[in-house]
Amino acid sequence: MEFSSKQLLYLSTIDKKNTLAAAADELQITQPALSFAIIELERKLGVQLFEKKGRRKILTPSGQLVTKFANETLYRAGELSELLSIDNQGNEGSLRVGMIDAASLYLLPTAIKAFKTETPNIKLYITVNDSDTLTEQLQNFEIDIAFVVSKDENNLDNSKLVSTLILEESLVLCNPILNGKHPMTEWALYPEKSRTRALIDEGIQALGLEPNTIIQSSNPQILRQLVLLGLATSILPEQVAKENNNIYVGKEIARRRITALRRANSPFDPKASSLIALALQVYNNV
Q1: Which CATH number is 85-167+258-284's, of 3.40.50.1820, 3.20.20.70, 3.40.50.150, 3.40.190.10?
Q2: From-to residues of CATH 3.40.190.10 in the chain
């Protein structure tokens, strides 16, 4: 069985772009040429990789397996190229960083700015998503490092992921200023099934409260604005809650840990280590 790295790249790109047209545009080849390359790869592998759903190309179970292999192979090839570069001591190349909304809004900007100043020749690519999605993207070799809300350490697969604690923050009750310490009936909270929401729900239940959640958002500044407008009660990171004095900030409801995740089996990457070190430096000095 023979196939080329170019075919693996084509497969990975179609998966990311969802349509042949978008993938062909990204790869700067014609759509018929891309389609032929995938048909040829399917012939060599003896499996169907995609099925059509409207204009989108959806991976079959076999396609998912091959794509995971393709992503890892392409990533490993890039790692090898950087490791073999004599002049590269972590000052060149690229770094793909995934982060939750909170990290992009107020947790990491200072560290990112310092990283860009210290390593101007590194291309930095940033993806913002929820913790579960970012963890999956990390394991699928789509990003190099993920700043996420930590799961219970007992549930972390240490054979696949390495976790570095960046900070622990308080999540506090926030009410419209006119309500004082008394929560409203209507609440604005983080999305259901998110890691932060699980922590919040546990804290709310411990207080015996039964909120009517009318709005959900992973962006804490949007949640805070709804409190500021007098539309809802919320639970917010303390740093966001205390941006000014226009809302009532009450007791701590829960605590969450923000960690940096990397793949356990990846070779040492000075770029990722530098960013983690800068993040730790920023928050240890706060």
Answers
A1: 3.40.190.10
A2: 85-167+258-284
Give the C-alpha separation, 152 to 154, whole Å.
5
Q: Are 72 and 141 in contact (CB under 8 A)?
A: yes
pLDDT tens per residue, range 155-180: 555 668 889 999 999 999 999 999 98
Rounded CA gap, 238 and 111, in Å? 20
Residue 192 phi/psi, 5-degree rounding, is: -60, 150
Spacing of C-alpha 106 from chain mean position: 15
Low-confidence ranges of the chain (pLDDT < 50): 86
Burial zone of 285 (CB within 10 Å; 0-12 exposed, 13-18 middle, 19+ buried): exposed
Q: Where in the chain is the domain with CATH 3.40.190.290?
A: 169-257
- Tokens 């978008």 correspond to what residue? 22
What single letter denotes the amino acid at residue 71?
N
- 169-257: CATH architecture: 3-Layer(aba) Sandwich (3.40)
- Contact in structure between 237 and 187 (CB atoms under 8 Å): no
HSE-up (13 A, CA, CB side) for residue 72: 11
Fold observed for domain 5-81: Arc Repressor Mutant, subunit A (1.10.10)
Query: 180 with 171: CB under 8 angstroms?
Result: no
Contact between 256 and 239 under an 8 Å Cβ cutoff? The reply is no
The DSSP output letter for 166 is: E
- The model carries a pTM of 0.73
Q: Which residues pair with 125 in a beta bridge?
A: 96
Angstrom distance (rounded) from CA 192 to CA 213: 10
Question: CA dihedral in degrees (66, 67, 71, 74; nearest 10)?
Answer: 60
